[in-house]
Description:
Layout: H1 2-12, H2 27-34, E1 44-46, H3 49-56, E2 68-83, H4 92-101, E3 107-110, H5 116-128, E4 133-136, H6 141-148, E5 154-158, H7 159-168, E6 172-176, E7 201-209, H8 214-228, H9 231-239, E8 243-244, H10 249-270
Parallel strand pairs: 3-4, 3-5
Antiparallel strand pairs: 1-7, 2-5, 2-6, 2-7, 2-8
Helix pairs in contact: 1-8, 3-10, 5-10
Amino acid sequence: GRLMAEKLGQAWGTNIVVENRPGAGGNIGTDAVAKAEPTGDTLLIVSVGMATNQYLYAKLNYDPVKDLTPITMVALVPNLLVVSNTLPVTSVAELVAYAKANPGKLSYGSSGVGTSVHLSGELFQKLTGTKMVHVPYRGTAQATQDLIGGRIDLIFDNITQALPHARAGSIRGLGITTAKRSASAPEFAPINDTVPGFDVSSWFALFAPAKTPQAVIDKVQADTKAALADPAVRNRMEALAAEPVGNSPAELGAFLQAEMKKWGDLIKEVGVKVE
């Protein structure tokens, strides 16, 4: 968000204020933008909760499709499947076999119920027919320490958190959660190679209030795409293992619908709820 604000502010000759609105899995900030005047002065950069929160929470004060207009995908960030060095597996295939042989005995950490880190584990279990125990944390820092200490067995962690530990050898990296290899961590094959259909990312996209003029949407999309092509921006993103995108509003809209379908079906099937 700050990186985009800096570049777009330069392009537009103005200062863009980045206002963090934490709480309720992003619902507070998203609701504020949904109710803002549709002039283009207020934009939203949001992640996976845009697709999942309507299924995780009993009630939302906004409709993610009717109250917000897609602009462009800013970046895709993969998660990384990492396991404790105490676990006797060195590949995704070996992990699946071990989990099947030990149903309910493996534990996987997450950064909280309903996060991409948690849902990665739920999708993995569904596609492999395995059963593991979910251990939610407040963020992944403590989960990573417990993984290093062997107190939990695995985590589908945000790559920026997990990659340094995996490369240092304090935990073992098995696979990337996106369907394609990551340029930032090419040594890890996609989990999808072993578990077809497994494709998860922590994505970040721009939206505007519904009824924002199309000319404004097109301008923001074009200038964001241009900013993402800047070598300095790409270098900063790649340092965070983020893949710049810059697609069209229609493509982002279709992606959001696909994410809603994938996660909505899974959340309803396994009964995940945020209290």
